[in-house]
TrEMBL record:
<dbReference type="InterPro" id="IPR005561">
    <property type="entry name" value="ANTAR"/>
</dbReference>
<keyword id="KW-0804">Transcription</keyword>
<feature type="domain" description="PAC">
    <location>
        <begin position="477"/>
        <end position="529"/>
    </location>
</feature>
<dbReference type="InterPro" id="IPR036388">
    <property type="entry name" value="WH-like_DNA-bd_sf"/>
</dbReference>
<dbReference type="Pfam" id="PF08447">
    <property type="entry name" value="PAS_3"/>
</dbReference>
<dbReference type="InterPro" id="IPR013655">
    <property type="entry name" value="PAS_fold_3"/>
</dbReference>
<dbReference type="InterPro" id="IPR001932">
    <property type="entry name" value="PPM-type_phosphatase-like_dom"/>
</dbReference>
<dbReference type="InterPro" id="IPR052016">
    <property type="entry name" value="Bact_Sigma-Reg"/>
</dbReference>
<dbReference type="InterPro" id="IPR029016">
    <property type="entry name" value="GAF-like_dom_sf"/>
</dbReference>
<keyword id="KW-0378">Hydrolase</keyword>
<dbReference type="GO" id="GO:0016791">
    <property type="term" value="F:phosphatase activity"/>
</dbReference>
<dbReference type="InterPro" id="IPR003018">
    <property type="entry name" value="GAF"/>
</dbReference>
<dbReference type="Pfam" id="PF13185">
    <property type="entry name" value="GAF_2"/>
</dbReference>
<dbReference type="InterPro" id="IPR000014">
    <property type="entry name" value="PAS"/>
</dbReference>
<feature type="domain" description="ANTAR">
    <location>
        <begin position="15"/>
        <end position="76"/>
    </location>
</feature>
<dbReference type="Pfam" id="PF03861">
    <property type="entry name" value="ANTAR"/>
</dbReference>
<dbReference type="InterPro" id="IPR035965">
    <property type="entry name" value="PAS-like_dom_sf"/>
</dbReference>
Length: 777
């Protein structure tokens, strides 16, 4: 080992020895103090002078075979009658010879009284060290922290023991609102026990994943919360016994005497001539009605009420009593309804305990006047000064209430009022008007004649007309200006003013108001822009619908006369949608092919508008060209599906396609997702069985099934789109069953038959309807 290492080791040993000597000296001092107190008690009980009483104490200890320090602690405990005595009653028979109290366990008394003797130094750190060693460690605790409470909710770490290095530095100061367990105990003014430490609450000695238990106890002096004692266990704990809980409460109160302000809490500022102390001068200097309250303590130093020690000359009792009557009364006696039911007493008690001031703009105060409860509303303020409490209240009269309502209305409406005295030049603004102009309170108001210096230059003409109307023509007037504030903000302001004239008509003053209408202005601008865009959109939509309708009507007129093709008589009807913007893609075709056969088609393109109309034109013309090949309807629909899928902009459609041969009177037909045709034969109507076939454009390669229908003379066949039968509340099958009885009715003319079907249609979708009817022979 080198010479430097030997010197460092020797220095460390010296420091450790000094620390042990200091601890021993501290313990010896605590023991001597405790024995001295016990000796003084024996002197007071008539056991001679100090020397005789000390020898008597030694004789009692020898006879009882007890350590001298333990017997001394028991005697002090029995004579004190304080919280420590309640927490650890006298145990030894030797002490009972002197004091004769009740029995209890022996260990607690010595620990508690030794810790109390250590607190006589007034050093918070020494007290916590002694308390942890003498009283808390036997309970299993490993650390303790003593916090000093600061008005406003902050805490300062006054002393600590048992925490790792650096923890005290990190938690030296706890700002208000952190929400630690100690701050919660101050706010609730009661001991808190956490057998399983919550992980979501920050605190000294807490780390992620740590467990343990905590006892957090307010440290009080004469009902005032001076701070908090926080005791830490390393593991979770079951609830403390009643004896252990009382010991911790007593230790917390011992700690309170070492915290800043405890001497003031114990001081007695009153004198026989001045029961309220120096607060009288402060109360008299206040403009509001003020009472000075002094706490009333029981034999355990707990606050049970407050005495009205003084009331200033401006004090106004809500029951109309003279202030001399109230002085000397207790708060709960003078105002039982307000104090208990209104919560005033709880607020006073909290302020006295924590030192945190309380303010309420509107509080209901009640009092009994001849057994009749009388309630008033007042602005209330409560503050602690030393051990006393100042309570101020300002009763709200009708004028005050209306003024407050007016102020709130002006604030909500962003209105500021003014009055300008033309004779004296004095200008009066309310507080809201300073805020509108962006000026600090107390700055010089802006005269009306200088308003143009604060407005946009383009508004100078409008301001001039406004001033001429008010100042020279003596008429009420209004105008709107753009106010340019010093902070660069531009506000849209509306000004309303009226002149005040004397009996001779001379102008005396101008009264008026400024209102910030910026939000309304920009809303109107946005609405105007929206209306312009909406009108433009409506115009474009109307134009598209008009073009779609013209395109549709050019190809399919709504009605046409029946025509003869080969041995078929063909009639068609087209009923457009009731709403113009619902122009759809319904279409039909009946054409004689080069092969002398007749092509019959009805289709429905999905959607509405110009897209549906142009899609209909594409499919109709494509099918006409494909039919010229002489192919059957299934093949034609297969080719048309290819056109819809590959050669259009995602057009989908349903269709039914038939090719009629006049020589054989056979109709070959196929469908692509379309409702079935209806055949009327011999006065009976029925739907044709459906061949397989998907709607057009759904998949690239679709196959379609073809059916053959032999026709007879007099048969009528109807092909239609879903606008004829579709309902929102019923299925297509149900609607078809309702259509068949109507279709079976006999009419001489084919066109009349189609009109009958359209007239009695129960469709409710307002969709286009396309209907084609053919009759054989």
């Amino acid at each position: 080992m080198s010479g430097d290492e030997q010197r460092v080791e020797a220095l460390a040993g010296t420091v450790e020895q000094l620390r042990r000597d200091l601890d021993l000296a501290q313990q010896s001092a605590d023991a001597r103090a405790l024995i001295g107190i016990a000796t003084g008690i024996l002197v007071e009980r008539g056991h001679g002078g100090p020397m005789e009483s000390f020898r008597h104490l030694e004789e009692l200890a020898q006879a009882a075979r007890l350590p001298l320090l333990e017997l001394a602690a028991d005697i002090v405990n029995g004579a004190a009658g304080d919280d420590v005595a309640a927490a650890a009653p006298v145990a030894t028979a030797a002490a009972r010879q002197v004091l004769a109290p009740e029995q209890s366990g022996p260990g607690e008394v010595l620990r508690m009284r030794t810790a109390e003797a250590g607190s006589l130094t007034g050093d918070a750190q020494a007290v916590v060290d002694s308390m942890l060693d003498q009283a808390l460690a036997p309970l299993g605790a490993k650390a303790a922290a003593l916090w000093a409470a600061i008005p406003g909710g902050a805490l300062v770490l006054a002393a600590h023991a048992g925490f790792v290095h650096g923890e005290a530095q990190r938690w030296h100061y706890v700002p208000p609102g952190v929400g630690t367990l100690a701050q919660r105990a101050v706010a609730e003014r009661r001991p808190l026990w956490f057998g399983d430490l919550p992980t979501d609450v920050p605190g000294i000695g807490q780390r992620r994943g740590t467990t343990g238990a905590r006892a957090v106890l307010p440290a009080e002096v004469s009902g005032r919360v001076m701070g908090v004692l926080e005791v830490c266990w390393p593991h979770t704990q079951p609830p403390l016994s009643g004896m252990a809980a009382r010991q911790l409460d007593a230790l917390a109160d011992l700690c309170a005497h070492t915290l800043p302000g405890s001497e003031a809490a114990l001081a007695e500022p009153r004198t026989p001539d001045n029961p309220a102390g120096p607060l009288v001068e402060l109360a008299d200097s206040l403009l509001d009605p003020t009472m000075v309250l002094r706490p009333v303590l029981d034999d355990r130093d707990q606050v049970t009420d407050f005495t009205i020690a003084y009331a200033n000359e401006r004090f106004s009792d809500i029951a109309g009593r003279a202030r001399s009557t109230l002085i000397g009364m207790r708060l709960l006696e003078a105002y039982p309804l307000t104090a208990r039911e209104g919560g005033l007493y709880e607020y006073v008690l909290r302020v006295h305990a924590t030192g945190e001031a309380f303010h309420a703009e509107r509080m209901a105060l009640s009092a009994l006047v001849g057994e009749v409860p009388l309630t008033s509303v007042a602005a209330v303020g409560i503050g602690r000064y030393g051990d006393s409490v100042l309570l101020t209240w300002r009763l709200e009269d009708e004028a005050t209430r209306l003024a407050a309502l007016l102020q709130h209305a002006q604030r909500l409406g962003r209105i500021g009022g003014f009055e300008e005295n033309v004779v004296s030049g004095e200008i009066t603004w309310n507080s809201q008007l300073f805020a509108l102009f962006g000026l600090p309170q107390g700055s010089s108001p802006v005269p009306l004649e200088r308003l143009h210096h604060h407005a946009h230059p383009d508004d100078a003409v409008a301001i001039g007309r406004f001033l001429r109307a008010v100042l020279y023509h003596r008429h009420a007037a209004s105008t709107a200006v753009r106010l340019q504030r010093a902070d660069g903000v531009v506000r849209h302001i509306r000004i309303v003013a009226e002149p005040v004239t004397g009996p001779d008509g001379a102008l005396l003053a101008v009264r008026g108001a400024y209102q910030d209408v910026s939000a309304q202005h920009w809303t109107e601008v946005a609405l105007a822009a929206t209306r312009d865009r909406l009108a433009d959109s409506e115009q474009r939509v109307a134009e598209r619908n008009r073009l779609a309708l013209q395109l549709q009507q050019a190809i399919m007129p709504p009605t046409s006369a029946p025509v003869d093709l080969a041995d078929l008589r063909v009639a068609v009807r087209y009923r457009p949608a009731e709403e113009g913007h619902l122009v759809g893609g319904d279409w039909y075709d009946a054409v004689l092919l080069p092969t002398k056969k007749v092509l019959l088609v009805v289709g429905d393109v999905a959607g509405h508008g110009i897209e549906a109309a142009t899609g209909m034109v594409v499919l109709r013309n494509a099918l006409r060209g494909l039919a010229a090949t002489g192919s059957g309807p299934a093949q034609l629909l297969g080719w048309l599906n290819t056109v819809a899928h590959h050669l259009t902009e995602h057009v989908t459609a349903t269709a039914v396609c038939g090719v009629y041969d006049p020589e054989t009177r056979v109709l070959r037909w196929a469908r692509a997702g379309h409702p079935p045709p209806v055949l009327v034969r011999d006065g009976e109507a029925f739907t044709l069985p459906l061949p397989r076939g998907l709607l057009l454009g759904a998949i690239p390669d679709a196959e379609y099934e073809e059916h053959r229908l032999p026709m007879e003379l007099g048969d009528r066949l109807f092909m239609y789109t879903d606008g004829l039968i579709e309902r929102r509340d019923r299925s297509v099958e149900h609607s078809l069953q309702q259509l068949l009885p109507i279709a079976g009715q006999s009419t001489r003319d084919l066109g009349e038959h189609l009109d009958l079907l359209l007239t009695h249609s129960r469709s409710d979708t307002d969709d286009d309807t396309c209907l084609i009817g053919v009759q054989v022979g």
